[in-house]
From TrEMBL:
SUPFAM superfamilies: Metalloproteases ('zincins'), catalytic domain (SSF55486). Belongs to the endoribonuclease YbeY family. This is Endoribonuclease YbeY. Single strand-specific metallo-endoribonuclease involved in late-stage 70S ribosome quality control and in maturation of the 3' terminus of the 16S rRNA. Its cofactor is Zn(2+). The lineage of its organism: Bacteria, Bacillati, Actinomycetota, Actinomycetes, Micrococcales. Zn(2+) binds at residues 116, 120, 126. The keyword Metal-binding applies. It is found in: Cytoplasm. Binds 1 zinc ion. The keyword Oxidoreductase does not apply. NCBIfam families: rRNA maturation RNase YbeY. Its EC number is 3.1.-.-.
Amino acid sequence: MSIEINNESTIEVDESALQRLAAYAFDILHVHPDAELAIVLVDEAAMEQLHVQWMDEPGPTDVLSFPMDELRPGTEEEPSPAGLLGDVVLCPQVAQVQAETAGHTLQDELLLLTTHGILHLLGFDHAEPAEEREMFAIQRDILVGFGRYDRQR
């Protein structure tokens, strides 16, 4: 599995934790071990530019997902095919504000946003209430499981 992280922002983050989380999410969601993912951290100006260009919305946002091969979660018996999952773009400055509001660390917020972005790459959405319940339940399960998994390592 190839999980590439590129921090183009000025904020230092625990890149290895993001990489471990992505690998854990791949395992839980039965994504093929040869799937490829890029996680890019950018500053507010770069994120705003992407947000306007791709979503036609002003201002920076916390996370954007850019799917490539439209992979979907697999099953234990049949993992997803190998391929390019896509890119998750994070903005640590926006995430920091959200973390403070939520009362947790920047790292916790980045883990949440990474999980959220990966789920979007795998076709999950939260436009409708039923979709939101499903996506956020999976997101919560991944984050809780990862916390237990990562502490055991």
